[in-house]
Amino acid sequence: MSQIIDTLGELAAKQKLVPFMGAGCSASMLPDWDSLVSEMAEQLGLTSITNHFEIAQKYVDTFGRDKFCEFLKSKLEISEFDDEKGYVHLTIMNMGVPVIYTTNQDNVMEKAFEKYGRKYRTIIHLKDFAEAKLSEQLYIKFHGDLNYPESIVFTQEDYQKRMSDPENAFNIRLRADLLAKNLLFVGYSFRDINIQQMFAELQKAFYGELPTSYMIAYRYSNELQSLCDQYGITLIDPMKECPEAKNHIEAFETFLKCMLEETRSKKFEDGMEEFFTPISSTPVKVVSKQEIDLLEQTIKKKPFSIGIKLFREICDLSDIPLDYEKRIVEAFTELAKKVKTDEDTDSLNAAIFNLKLKNPLNKLRILAALMATANVRSPKSKYGGDHFFVGMQGVSKSTYIVVAAKAIEYVYSWGWKPTPPLSWNVNHWIEKGADFKALPKQIQQYVMYWVDKMRRDCKTVAEHPIKRQQRLRDYSLIDPSVSLTEDETKLLSELINQEL
Questions:
Q1: What is the structure's pLDDT at 156?
Q2: Phi, psi angle pair for 128, to nearest 5°
Q3: Strand 99-102 vs strand 120-123: parallel, antiparallel, or unpaired?
Q4: Please, what is the average pLDDT of the chain?
Q5: Where would I find the beta strands (DSSP E) of 257-398?
Q6: CA distances from 251 to 59, 139, 222, 310, 345 (A)
Q7: Most buried residue, 128, 137, 192, 243, by most Cβ within 10 Å?
Q8: What InterPro entries does UniProt report for this protein, alphabetically (predicted)?
Q9: For residue 416, how many other CB atoms are within 10 A of its CB?
């Protein structure tokens, strides 16, 4: 690990980094400034482009600020956040910092917050500070928002106006946020349309001397190095720190991933000191596409013991982007197919304890795959007795009657023959579930089909689990309040109709 990652991890863990996001953070989802300025120049009837700011200023002078913002909105606003393309936003969102600054005027970070149900407050005007709640993460749009044309800082005239007022509310807030802290510029390059003006603006806000600052370059260049040297900013070249990366984009994301992991590690080391009186939120690791690619290949080629270890290293207490959850479920299912012993099934069971999935259907699929592994467990009595205690956070035991049937379907789809330990455990899972008679007819038929098939292929002297459940209910030996909600019933209908 490089010294700079160690330094940034230490600062972030102690809440001493204030991230400042640049255009490179959104580059994978939005057009670059060259193409935007070229289109503005074309609308203005200009054939040559000498200065981006002059073009922007001329566009505002010709068509007005509202038209200018409408043009940018059509290019810089997205309707839905893409997890794969938005890895940088997910990483910064999960750093555990209370405030994030940006010069970007797009809506990508807001869409990330909304997709993941995070409490946040976009700060555009002075009144937004007064309305913010302590539980909200602040997202301060330092150069305004396109929905409020008067707030935008973009043209040369805008920068001159901002720099003429060092007591601007945003400058005052930034100075307060940076008391005994450090700026971390993320995703800037020398080609950014506003970088030189931004540095001059910030230097003015801090009365001529920036606090200790770092910049993770989106695209390193000698020109950017000279500019950072001029303002006393430590510039980090991700390609140098991550030489195995194929290009500057992969290096940029890999560096952020390593920094976040180091932050979590440092936070954990200090965790016991804050255990009883926590003073800051904990950084959360974000699972990346590269990690899932590696996990899939490892599970495919390596033994179960290596696959389950990597699964936990990647997934334990991590933020799994919604767009990747299906792949995580499939990876878990492939692991389940490889179990051979009680110890393997116990390891798989432990792996779901810290598995943070958001889609409830994916939770049911994971639990069904885990239940299916009871098939390899050793019998603890001559009748096949076994107790495989399973559970997943957010999954009600009332669903077990259907999830257990799905587990039997998994067993057959994997080419396995049902065993007495599976049959024994299915009996107990069904006993804990909702009343069979209260299930919709389609679900009743599904459950009965797979239970009967299992019992035909695995002879047992045990009572039929459905009859057993009804008998226990008749004698009030089962909690009658265990029932399915309307949402759970809909989810189970989806579950039984999913092909394996």
A1: 77
A2: -65, -35
A3: unpaired
A4: 89
A5: none
A6: 36, 25, 17, 22, 37
A7: 192
A8: DHS-like_NAD/FAD-binding_dom
A9: 15
**In sequence order, which ranges of 373-440 are alpha helices (DSSP H)?**
400-413, 420-432
What are the pLDDT digits (tens) for 397-452? 999 999 999 999 999 999 999 999 999 999 999 998 999 999 999 999 999 999 99
How does residue 4 score in pLDDT terms, banded at 50, 70 and 90? very high
Distance CA 167, CA 151 (A): 16
Token pair belonging to 12:
């972030």
Q: Which residue has the higher pLDDT, 42 or 207?
A: 42
Tokens encoding 372:
């299916």
Bridge partners for 141 per DSSP: 102
Domains and CATH numbers, the chain: 3-30+78-263 (3.40.50), 359-497 (no CATH)
Q: 446: left (phi > 0), else alpha (psi -120 to 50), else beta?
A: alpha
> Rounded to 5 degrees, what are φ and ψ at 228?
-65, -40
pLDDT of residue 263: 83
DSSP letter at 353?
A: T
DSSP per-residue letters across 99-154: EEEE---SSHHHHHHHHTT--EEEE-SHHHHHH--TTSEEEEETT--TTSGGG---
